[in-house]
Each structure stands twice: as C-alpha cells, then as structure tokens.
Amino acid sequence: SSISTAAEPWPENAALYQQLKEEQILLSDNASSLAVQAFLQMCNLPIRVICRANAEYMSPSGKLPFIHVGNQVVSELGPIVQFVKAKGHSLSDGLDEVQKAEMKAYMELVNNMLLTAELYLQWCDDVTVEEITHPRYGSPYPWPLNRILSYQKQWEVRRKMKAIGWAGKTLEQVLEDVDQCCHALSQRLGTQPYFFNKQPTELDALVFGHLFTILTTQLITDELSEKVKNYSNLTAFCRRIEQQYFEGHEKDSSAIAARSSKRSLLR
User: Fold this and answer.
1) Which domains, ranges and CATH numbers included, belong to the chain?
2) What are the residue boundaries of the Metaxin glutathione S-transferase domain, all occurrences included (predicted)?
C-alpha cells in the first residue's frame, strides 16, 4: 500500500492539526507545529492549519502536530519528513552521506536541548507553571477537569525529565544549555543563508520552528528569548525564513498569523 500512497499526488485538503492558537497552545507544541509548517512550505506542499482543543487526544501517538493527508495520519516532524519523502519530496536529497549525518546530529541537538528546555520551562519552573502553563493547557476544559489534565501532563513531563537527568537542573543551568545549543547552531550557520548553504533542509525548518517561537512568545521573563537574541545570525535567519515562506502566505497558514497577541520579529 505504501507504493500506491507514494504515487498519489499531494491532496488539496491536506491538514495539520494543533491546539487552539490564542488561548491554549504551549511554547513547545507551537514550536513543533511551526517546524512542520515551515518544512511543508519549503517543500511547496500546501497545508491547512486546523486548531482543535482536543488535538492532542486526536493524534495517534499523542504527539503534536499531526497531519491528515488522504487517508494517512502522521505525527511529528521526523515521521512527516519520511512520509513526504515517500511521496517524492525531499529537502535533503542534495546532501552527501557526511552532510546527512551532520544534519541528523544537529536535529538531535535541537530536540535534546531546545525542546527539552521548553518542556522544562513549561512544566518544571513553578512560576511559569502557575501563571502560564496550567491556565493555558487546561483552558478548553471546565473545572476540575482543567486542573486534573494539567497535573496529569505535568507529572508525565516531570517523570520524563527525571529519566533524562534534567529534573535536578536549575533554571540557570537550563538557560545555559539553551545558550550552548544556540552557540553551536550559530557557529554552524555562520554567514550562510541556510545550514547547508543555498537550500533549506529539514534542519532549517526545525531550527526556525523553535527559535522563532522562542523569540515571539511572551513568557514570565525574557531570559529565554535573550539567549537567542545574543546571536544576530540566528535572528536574521528566522527573519529570512519568515519573510520567504510565511509573509503573504498568511491566508493559507496560521503559523505566523498569530501575531496579534505576540511580538513580531519584524518590528
């Protein structure tokens, strides 16, 4: 069946599902969703963004975002990249084996450092948990379900943090990790437009998703976004991708249309 799936053209009604944009979605899910949207824009594959309060429970893996293409449902960037590749669209075909290995290593770095830092901030930093995470995460649900679901999720994330050795970290240590990750990305990018020179790859989509979301999300303090702002080539990179792949696409993609409540990079 995978051969017949591959042969089918990309449907007009392909959809990406995420949580409610204004009042519910959290930093980490927003970043992951934006990374997938950027990847699909770079592949020139149209996608409609559909926001649902219960998106997390609709996903087959419980992970977000997920895309619904034809009769296939695929969640998270890695599997989506593979799925799109099976349909004949790839951003990294031009890379040699060494570059592909390097790209994979940097993607792991982003997931291990930035995504984990976002989850830590959301669910392990007490002030953020109380003021932002619990109210947003539980917002679609009535009391006491809103609290129950939030605590359940918090327990799940904190258990994961314990397993990977992050539970005992201080916020300062986590921000230091973010800085190290940004430093490595900044070094690799240098003065190139993209990480592998002229053409974007899925690494560019992933980095953009996380950095743009960090730069434009209002948190308790600006400490997280300040770490990214220290690297002017990374902020310029975000601006470039925003302009190239999202400006003027706002009718089709709600990725960046959520600016009303956020700071834009282009100010």
Assistant:
1) 15-247 (1.20.1050.10)
2) 179-241
CA dihedral sign of residues 104, 19, 240, 121: negative
pLDDT at 248: 72
Output the 3-class SS for the chain: CHHHHHHCCCCCCCEEEECCCCCCCCHHHHHHHHHHHHHHHHCCCCCEEEECCCHHHHCCCCCCCEEEECCEEEECHHHHHHHHHHCCCCCCCCCCHHHHHHHHHHHHHHHHHHHHHHHHHHHHCHHHHHHHHHHHHCCCCCCCHHHHHHHHHHHHHHHHHHHCCCCCCCHHHHHHHHHHHHHHHHHHHCCCCECCECCCCHHHHHHHHHHHHHHHCCCCCCHHHHHHHCCHHHHHHHHHHHHHHHCCCCCCCCCCHHHHHCCCCCC
- Beta bridge partners of residue 128, listed in sequence order: none
**What is residue 5's predicted lDDT score, i.e. its pLDDT?**
56
- Looking at residue 202, its amino acid is E
CB 106 within 8 A of CB 98: no
From CA 140, how far away is CA 52, in angstroms rounded? Answer: 10
Segment-wise mean pLDDT, segments of 10 residues, the chain, 267 residues: 64 95 95 98 96 94 94 95 94 95 98 97 96 96 94 97 96 97 98 92 98 96 96 97 84 42 41
Question: Partners of 148 in the beta sheet?
Answer: none
pLDDT the model gives residue 190: 96
